[in-house]
Structure formats: structure tokens, C-alpha cells
Amino acid sequence: MTAYLRFTALxxxxxxxxxxxxxxxxxxxxPEVKRAPPSPSVERVxxxxxxxxxxxxxxxxxxxxxxxxxxxxVIALLDRAETQHQSHDVDAAAVSLxxxxxxxxxxxxxxxxxxxxxxxxxQWDQAVQMAARSNSYAGRYSGLRARNWxxxxxxxxxxxxxxxxxxxxxxxxxxx
Length: 176
Description:
Elements: H1 2-27, H2 72-86, H3 90-103, H4 108-121, H5 124-138, H6 142-158, H7 162-175
Helix pairs in contact: 2-3, 3-4, 4-5, 4-6, 5-6, 6-7
């Protein structure tokens, strides 16, 4: 009887692990994973490419992700945030980005956009924290990480930390 219980317990554990692995890989696929095409009965909205703001000192690296998100909800929130930002409602844009981050909390581009907003708002400490969070999720995207280090340098300089700003600029140049 104990062998039967052990076998059943092992089977249940393996099935749960397989389900958990499948759920995680569907939720956070790696860039190399190729997805199966959707079934014909499901209408799929094509992912939209949202251009990254570029500065003369940080050209877009070819290793940056091609699109912000596959989620239509996140893209809609980004569109709303952009519209609010263009109409100079930075606080409302920040709220829209926060909602997008609740949907995709591991998206480095969302964190970077939030860091840029905090920089505009003069919230230097939060800009540093959010750019650092973006770097923690950026992985191999060196252009994205370089821009984050530029944000950190700008915020540190505004805080009066000239040495920290110089260190951040050096890291940005190394990644370019």
C-alpha cells in the first residue's frame, strides 16, 4: 500500500510541476521561445511596436527588444500614458504606467518608462530605483541597460552625488 501511495504522490508532484512550468513559460516566455500560431477561431491582435525615446548620447542598440509587450492591455495603457504625457499630465501618465506594471511586473521597458517619468517629476530617488529595477530585468539588452544608467546618472547628479553620476555614466559608456 505504501508503494502505491508513493507512486501516486510522485505522479501528483510531477503533474503539478509540469503545470507550473507550463504556466510560467506562457506568462514569461524567453525571447528565443517560438510560439505556436493561434488557432483560427481566436482573433489575435498583432503586437505593436512602440518606439523607445532616444537621446543623442545613447543610440538604440540592435540588441534591444523589438516590442514593448504582447499584451493588448499593456499596449493600451502605454498608449494612454503617452497621450497623457503629451498633454502634460505626467501624474496621470504615471498612474497608467503603474497599472501596466501590475500586469507585467517583469517588463524592463515599462520600468524604464516609469523611471523617465519620475525623472521628469523630480523624484530622483525613485528614478534611480526604477532604472535599477529595469536593469535587473533587462538581461542581454545592453542598449536598454545603457539608457537606464544614463537615467541613474542624471538623477544622481540632481541629488548632488557627482561621483555616483560619473560612475553611472562610465557604466553607460561601457554598454554602448
